[in-house]
Amino acid sequence: MRVVVCITGASGVIYAKRLLEILNKKNIHTDLIISNSAKKIIKEELGVDWKDLTELSTNYYENDDFFSPVASGSNHFDAVVVIPCSMKTLSGIANGFSSNLIVRVCDIALKEKRRLIIMPREMPLNSIHLENMLKLSNLGAVIMPPIPAFYHKPQTVKDIIDFVVGRVLDLLKIENNLFTRWGNI
Q1: Which of 52, 116, 172, 180 is positioned for an S-S bond with 48, CB 3.0–4.6 A?
Q2: Tell me: the pLDDT tens digits for 165-184?
């Protein structure tokens, strides 16, 4: 399996870091793209340099690198996860405006009918956000706001993060036991 992980300029980069940690631990090939805004948010929210996250991936590409292998539909990857997804990126994907590598990779996922998971991190949502999400859902993307459940009685922030990341792994059909599933409580 090969997963492209895209981190954009929205709060919630901890979800991306945890996803990369798990995919790395499971020896799953990952291509990582980080937007310039996300690089700043990584420093702000995680207190680490964005380059630390590149060490968790197989390959790293700059967001303006249209010569990277993932910029072409002929280069095979199985899925793209935009985690977190800013409304700017969501709009670019929904409207086919491939102004950077992240949006281009998502465009490829849509046109090649590959798994595309978009994790918008914004609230409240306005009608434009909702219309863009509906458009992407109708095109086959999975819209997955990082909303945790509480039936498993999380005790720590890590428990909440693991629930969300575990659900992403479920959508990618990657075995995991990051959270207690409903009915197993």
Answers
A1: 52
A2: 999 999 999 999 999 898 87
CATH number reported for the structural domain that contains residue 79 in this entry: 3.40.50.1950
**Does the annotation list 87 as a binding residue?**
yes
Nearest to 70 by CA among 57, 87, 86: 57
Is 38 part of any domain? yes
User: Does 2 show up as a binding residue in the annotation?
Assistant: no
Instruction: Determine if residue 91 is labeled as part of a ligand binding site.
Output: no
CA distance 61 to 81: 15
Within a domain: residue 178?
no
Place of tokens 């291509």: 31
Q: Please check if 30 is assigned to a binding site.
A: no
Point out which residues pair with 49 in neighbouring strands. none
Domain count, the chain: 1
Query: Which range of residues forms the domain containing residue 55?
Result: 2-171
Query: Rounded to 5, what percent of the chain is helix, strand, coil?
Result: 40, 15, 40
Q: Is the preceding peptide bond at 84 cis, omega within 30 degrees of 0? A: yes
**Predicted structure pTM score:** 0.97
pLDDT tens for 90-143 read: 999 999 999 999 999 999 999 999 999 999 999 999 999 999 999 999 999 999
Residue 181 lies in a domain: no
